[in-house]
Specification:
Structural class: mainly beta
Oligomer: single chain
Number of strands: 23
Strand content: 35-45%
Distance between the termini: 25 Å
Radius of gyration: 19 Å
Shape: globular
Length: 299
Amino acid sequence: MKVWEDRIKAPDIKTADYRYVGGTRKFHLIVEEIRHNILSEVAIRGLGYNGSTPGPLVLGKQGEWIEITVENRSDKPTALHVHGYAKPNQEDGVPDIEPTPLIEPGTSYSYRFFLWQSGTFFYHSAQEFQAHKGLMGPFVVLPEDGPAGWQSVHDRDYVFVLQEWEIPQPGLGKVSPGTFKPDKFARNPNFFTINGKAFPDTSNVYVSYGQRVRLRFINKSNDSHSMHLHGHDFRVVAVDGFPASGQMQDTINVPSGVRVDVEFTANNPGIWPMNGTKTFHESNNGERPGGMIARFKYL
C-alpha cells in the first residue's frame, strides 16, 4: 500500500503531511487568506488550506481512523465537510443544519471518523460560499485489501480538481493582468482551472508506453465539466467512490459534486491534450487556448 500512496499524485498540488498515532492518521489544515496565481500574470486573493487552492491532497487508508484538525486563521467562521463520505452526524461539518460546531477565527476543531470506504472524495467549507473562494481540496482513501480489479495499483495515478472563477476583467477576449478578488457567487465564471492552474500554466502529465493509468476527476463548481483525452479511450471504473464497469469512452461528464475515476493503457505515444470540451472552458476570459487544458506527454 505504501507503493500506491507514493504513486498517487495531484499535479500542482502538494500531498498533505500526517502523523500516524495509534491507528489514526492525523492531519492539520490551516484556513487562511491567500494570494494564488492561476496564471503567471493573473492571481486571486481568496481562501486556501495550508496556503493553496485546492488544498493539499489528503490520503487515507480504508480500515484506519482519520483525524483532521482545522485551524482557522481567517476572519470569518468556517467548518470542514468531507463530501460524499458517510460519517457520524457530529463529524459532518455543516453547522447551519447539523450538531457540528462553527470554527471561529483564532480557534481549531478536530474531526475524527473511521475510513470504512475507499475511493475518490473531496473536502470543502460549507460556510458562506467559502468553497468558491478556494476552500476545497482532494481526499482519497486507498483500499484496505490487496489489489484487485478496479482497486488495483496503477503505474500512474493522477488526481484532477476542476474549479471555475469569476474574476473582474474589462471585457471578454483578453486577459488583464493583476491580482483580483473572485466573486463568491461565481454565477458567470470566466476562468477555469485544473488543480488550481489554467493553461498554459497547468503542469504536464507524464506517462510511459504500456503503463496502466488512472485519472480521478473531482468537480466542486456550479457547472458540469465534460473532460476529453485525445488519442486514447478509457473505461470508467468508479463513480463517487463506488465501482463501475462502464463501456469504453473518450469523453466523460463530471457534474457538480461528482467524482469519476477512469483508467486506460498508454498505447499511443506523443503529446496529447486533456481538455474540457465546452469551448469557453478552454479559454482564459475568452482568450484561447487556456482554461481546462493539460498536456499528456510520453516519456
